[in-house]
Every structure is written in C-alpha cells, then in structure tokens.
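TA notes, week 10

Several of you asked for a full example with nothing omitted. So below is the full record: structure tokens for the whole chain, then the designed sequence directly under it. When grading your own attempts, check the secondary structure regions first.
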C-alpha cells in the first residue's frame, strides 16, 4: 500500500523507513538520480516534520491508537547520517563583505542589502530576521534584540537575544528606522502590481514573506560576488558561528547568540572547537 493510505493505527517503523528510502532515490537507480535525489540533510528535515505531525496525531487520538505507536514513529523517523557538513558552506570574511556590498547593489532601495547585512552580522535564520521589528534595534546600546525561532511546542514566547552590532551596520539601518513606529517590520520588500501585459511596477512595501521569495536576488548576489555557485544564504549563518568559535568565544555564548544548543554546535562544528581550544591552550605553554 502507498504510505499515505496506511491507517495510523497500523503504521510501523518499516513502512516509514521504506517510504524514506523511496524518497531518497525517487524509486530509480542511483545513476538516474545522482543529481536529483535530495541530500540526507533535506530528508532529515522532512522526517522531522513528519515525526512532529505523526506525534501530534498520536496525542490527539491517543485513546484509539496502540500504546507502542510513538515508539514505531520514533524508530522509523531516525535521521540519516549526514556527510556534507557545514564546512563546505563557509565563507571567508572578505567574501562575506563582498556579498553584503553586492546585495545593496542588487536592490537600489537597500531593502535586500539590509537583509543580507543583518544575516551576515548576526548569523540569524531567515525566519528570525523576518520577525524583526523597528523597536528591536537599540542603536544607543549598539545591539539588536533578535527574536527566537519558533521551534518546539512550548506555549511561552522566549525572550529575544541581544546581539551586538557594529557602528557601520547600525548606520546602514538608519533609513529603515527613521520616522517609523516601533512595531513596524524592520525588513521589508516591494510588492508589485500588474499594469499591462508582462509589465509590473512597484506598488507598496510589505513585510518579508517566505524564504523562496528572495532566491532570485540571492542568486544574483552569488553571481556578482563570484561566490561558489552552490552557496546558499544559510552559509552566512555557518560563517558567523565559525567566526565566533575561531576568535575564542565560549561555545555557550556562540550557541546563545545564534539561538541554538551547545549540543548542536559541538556536533556540527567540533573541528573548529578543537582549533579554538588548541589556540587557547597554546597561549598557556611555558618556554624554557
């Protein structure tokens, strides 16, 4: 039976794993799908979403479902090993600066440039940047209060994280701060309206939408800044995390500034933690 046709009460780990395997190969040979099959990390993210949905259904219908079902879901949605680590998406500081400069040229009004600049300066996720309001910028204290990402099922809203900003970043944010209310979205983009066959013009500014809306502009940044062709905007986050580790910031602080866990940092960036601790230990070496 198709995965979608299996009654929830009869779902087993093997059915989930078989569906995941078909997803990974598209039901074709490795040669046919070498360039098309999703990366293990992509499959893992999808399995995380599936697990959350199945667990929610189990909770809602717990009286009618077998008690062992949560275990079947947990086993069936285990993560695949990921071999392509963050190191492949790291950008040196000079390329990060170039990308930010180019982003301001891609959008003459500076809206996209400010988005890329804040992504590079804070290492925040796109969803966090989209949630920023004018009042989150505390220019007199040289920082921005970054909203936490909406993960998990906690009913309470976590307090934002104070992330330091340099003077030049704050200066480039001034155009979007002046004359605006504190509860207005900090980062915006143009909405367009159709004025004729294949003709569009700017209509009004609106809050940032889904992440896919910026793909064309980011692709232009990659081209103009001569970044590796497969560079995604998330590389700015990876680079920010590694930058903090390389200069010796405590792992706990790096995790806090980037709204993630110490465990995640240690799992995905262990090589840079080793480099950082070795440099610190070298400073304590005694000479004779």
């Amino acid at each position: 039976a198709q995965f979608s046709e299996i009654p929830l009460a009869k779902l087993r780990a093997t059915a989930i794993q078989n569906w995941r395997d078909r997803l990974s190969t598209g039901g074709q040979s490795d040669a046919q799908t070498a360039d098309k099959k999703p990366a293990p990390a992509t499959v893992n993210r999808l399995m995380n979403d599936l697990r959350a949905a199945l667990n929610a259904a189990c909770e809602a219908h717990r009286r009618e479902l077998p008690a062992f079902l949560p275990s079947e879901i947990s086993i069936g949605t285990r993560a695949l090993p990921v071999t392509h680590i963050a190191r492949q998406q790291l950008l040196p500081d000079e390329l990060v600066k170039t990308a930010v400069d180019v982003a301001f040229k891609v959008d003459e009004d500076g809206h996209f440039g400010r988005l890329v600049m804040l992504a590079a300066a804070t290492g925040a996720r796109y969803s966090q940047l989209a949630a920023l309001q004018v009042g989150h910028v505390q220019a007199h204290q040289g920082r921005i209060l970054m909203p936490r990402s909406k993960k998990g099922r906690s009913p309470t809203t976590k307090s934002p994280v104070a992330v330091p900003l340099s003077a030049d970043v704050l200066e480039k944010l001034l155009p979007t701060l002046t004359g605006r209310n504190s509860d207005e979205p900090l980062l915006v983009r143009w909405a367009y309206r159709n004025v004729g066959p294949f003709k569009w013009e700017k209509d009004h500014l609106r809050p940032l939408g889904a992440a896919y809306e910026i793909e064309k502009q980011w692709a232009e940044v990659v081209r103009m800044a001569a970044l590796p062709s497969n560079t995604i905007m998330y590389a700015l986050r990876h680079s920010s995390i590694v930058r903090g580790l390389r200069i010796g910031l405590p792992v706990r602080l790096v995790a806090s500034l980037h709204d993630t866990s110490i465990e995640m940092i240690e799992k995905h960036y262990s090589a840079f933690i080793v480099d950082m601790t070795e440099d610190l230990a070298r400073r304590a070496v005694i000479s004779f």
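The CA atoms of residues 15 and 192 lie 45 Å apart. Use that as a sanity check on your answer.
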